[in-house]
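Entry for the shared binder. Reason: the reviewer on the internal report wants the predicted structure included alongside the sequence.
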Amino acid sequence: MGRVYKAEFRHEAVRLALSSGLSRERIAQDLGIGSSTLKKWIRDAQKLDTVVADTTDHTALLRENERLRRENLLLREERELLKKGNTVLRGPKVVRFAFIARYHGPLSRDRVCHLFGVSDRGLRAWRRRPVCARKRQDDILMVHIRTIHAQSRRSYGRPRMTEKLRAAGLSVGHRRVGRLMREYDIRVVRTRRFKVTTNSAHSHAIAPNLLGQHFSATAINQKWTADITYIWTREGWVYLSVVLDLFSRRIIGWNLDARMTVKLPVTALKRAIALRRPPKGCVHHADRGSQYCSEDYRKVLSAHGFIVSMSRKGNCWDNAVTESFFKTLKAELLWRHAWMTRQEVEQAITCYINDFYNPQRLHSALRWKSPLEHERNAA
């Protein structure tokens, strides 16, 4: 009897025993086999069915796990894509179309279109549509905006950005610049920390407020202002003293020290004097801090013929221009990093003042010119 025939005979015997309703002894007698042999065949078939069923269940489980893994991957991709395109969702359809066209991830195009509230048909039509002149101009503007944004240390908002573009010879308005900056998520970086630096509880003489919040000047070396601020590092606080010329808003002297002693502002003042050599009668305005009211500081002022002016008690607006510089410095440089050493801060501030603030940064009070440019134009 052939092997194939034996297997078929065995399978048929088991089928009859399990489904015919006849007793196993009768079926064994009719087929001419022993009843023990038939019982063994039935046990073997049942074991085989159990193994096949287990194998099938295991395969189905593996397929289900793979399906769930794939679905979880796509859901995570959707979440990350929506994070990246958060601002794009609020923009017009053309911005969303451009964002989708740049996407090459595992999500299908239909699924991405659904996430961003557009149709696949609209996307195809947008791709076939020729780029209009307005869009080409916007693309050119965005190249300039991104460049200026990086050069300005991400500090220029819509007004300064517009003036910088106009200075580059581009005819553009505030609304258009604001729209492009919103659509492409060009933002100004800001954050903040506070520490008191003015100690007015002292017995030194106080000068009157001669400046009276009149922060304009018609020439250099007419009005100077001075103040002190603070920066936190891993080594501890470091203090910055500056001297500013109100005519050009230029920082003409500065000094950093780990201690807020009278030596800190005296050194900054001496550096400003060495740079400018001001004539007698220049107004020097500062707050009522003990450093500026000290005898050592007053001696330097007197020796060079300065007229001393001081803010009213507790009124930061009396020295608003210098306070504004400190805010700008912190927002555009200091608050963006965790500073490790005082030397690192000193190098960064020196670079910021010499390479950016004085020669490049635009000021609305100077009709959107930098301090050095304003001084050159006035010379």
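Summary line for the report: The chain is about 55% helix and 10% strand.
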